[in-house]
Amino acid sequence: QFKFVLFFVFIFTSLLNAQIINKISIEGNKNINQTEYQKWCSGFIKSKLTPSSCDTINKVISKNLILQGYHNFKIQSINSFVSADTLFADIVVNITEGEQTFIKDFNITGLDSADTKYVYDNLSFLKETIFVGAEIENVFSELLNYFENNGHPFSLIKVESDKVEYDSLDEKYLAELFLLFDKQQKSRIDSVE
Is the N or C terminus of the chain more exposed, i.e. has fewer CB atoms within 10 Å? Predict the structure, then answer.
């Protein structure tokens, strides 16, 4: 009877402890190689499989695909497969990456004509490039510096929306970004003590 109780305790504690994630595999990827996905998900390897693990992996992969310009991806499924000894789990992600999205144009509001021209001239080099948020943020930073140096230190740039459409003639996805600029009140330093 002691062996039976010991066996039961062993099985029960094994089931209580979460499995350790052993491997994450990506199926369906065409454009981004497995190694890149492995880098994105490396923090999950050797961690415990929890009910939220698959959701978190989904978020990490989604964020990184968007950063690479893939705005039309679809994660079909994320499944975990527990090993026979119930100690380890393998995660399999089935994904359709889609194609990268390119910037078609910018629609700028909230500025006078001179500032609109300046902003548009500084953004125009991004047209027909892959829609990567970090690139746009770099230009936004430069534009905010320009406005700050011209008496508007509290200026705001807001991406109100984006419109992504498939261009069947060029066979690619194109994004139009709608930007709202708010220069706030002009400020200046009247005196320095």
Answer: C
